[in-house]
Specification:
38% helix; globular; four-stranded mixed sheet; 3 helices; single chain
Length: 80
């Protein structure tokens, strides 16, 4: 089983999501919250998160939630 890392900036709207629940829903997933991911221009415009280093953003946090779950599932499937 592979490992999937989800990273989110504490000041981005995505930080309000229950990201830690992804760790139990998708074994092999870890969530990292940081004070800044040095992507301020994106952070000011959209909710976003990184999934295994790839940025994912959406217009709303609900859309981002679905995008993150889809990205995690794809990563885990690829990692076997």
């Amino acid at each position: 089983m592979g490992i999937v890392i989800v990273e989110v900036c504490d000041v981005n709207p995505a930080s309000g999501l229950d990201l830690e629940s992804l760790e139990s829903a998708y074994p092999g997933t870890s969530v990292i919250r940081t004070s800044c991911l040095s992507n301020c221009s994106e952070c000011a415009l959209h909710p976003y998160a990184y999934v295994n280093g790839e940025i994912h953003w959406a217009e709303t946090t609900d859309e981002l939630w679905n995008t993150i779950k889809t990205a995690i599932a794809a990563e885990l499937a690829a990692l076997g």
